[in-house]
Amino acid sequence: MDHFGNLALVSRSINSEYGNLPYNEKRQRFVNKRALEKRPDSLKMDLIFSNGDWGDAWAETHQAAILEAMRRHYQRKFCQD
Questions:
Q1: d(CA 20, CA 46)
Q2: Of 36, 35, 14, 38, nearest in space to 26 by CA
Q3: Which of 15, 37, 59, 80 is most buried, taking the most CB atoms under 10 A from its CB?
């Protein structure tokens, strides 16, 4: 649970709003709020809550994909000599 693939950066108030609720309750609040405000609280939470469930396997898969994307990004040449 406590690793990069499961991390969503949000404001303190949003974090408090979701608190330690079970996944399905957090998901329902997120979906309702997104429909009302016409935008998600965070893109990462949108990704997480687009799944019917989220757990260690999903978080680990997501973490591997993000780390690979970062690796590819930082291996690029940004300047031509």
A1: 18
A2: 14
A3: 59
Q: Judge whether 33 lies within some domain.
A: yes
Give this prediction's pTM.
0.70
**Token reading at 52:** 């019917």
Residue 81 in any domain: the answer is: no
> How far lies 48's CA from each of 17, 30, 51, 58, in Å?
16, 10, 6, 9
**Which structural domain, as residue segments, surrounds residue 47?**
4-75
pLDDT in tens, the chain (81 residues): 677 777 788 889 988 988 889 989 999 999 999 999 999 988 889 988 998 888 888 888 988 998 899 889 888 776 655
Please count the structural domains in the chain.
1
Query: Which one, of 52, 53, 66, lies nearest residue 7 by Cα?
Result: 66
